[in-house]
Amino acid sequence: MTSLSTKVFWFSCFLSGLFYFIVLGESGIVVRSQLEESLASLQLDVERLSYENRQLEEKQRILKNDQVALEREARRFYLLSENAQIIKFRETENVGELKPILASRLNAFRPGKQFPVPPIQFIRIFYAIFASFTCIGVFIKMRKKKLDFSNN
User: Fold this and answer.
1) What value, to the nearest 5°, has the Cα angle with vertex 9 and ends 7 and 11?
2) In the predicted model, is pLDDT for residue 103 greater than 60?
3) pTM, whole model, 2 decimals?
């Protein structure tokens, strides 16, 4: 028959393992909250970038078809005089050359973000060490109590 100290040791190991898998595991609460937070920020970036993309496509369509708008834009950015002539060259469209801007790169420094949280791997390692020492300490403490009762 197992002693009380062994039962308490295994029970504390079970509780610490259960806490690890529920909170710190691959599908635990911490990882899910981080993923939900990053998903929300990525969705915000996607909406913002799609709106910006529509604006730029509209502007490109206008500049492609309207010579007056093209001259106005060129004067605005290149500081051309009123009597300067603008020569428009036709280019072949290479869709494959366009590289999209990834929203994850824009996410590096976002205002209003909370303090940085250490990576989940460090938290897991720290918790495993802490739980191991706690379980061993409980086992030793319970064994000493057993020895104290047997000596009396």
Assistant:
1) 70
2) no
3) 0.46
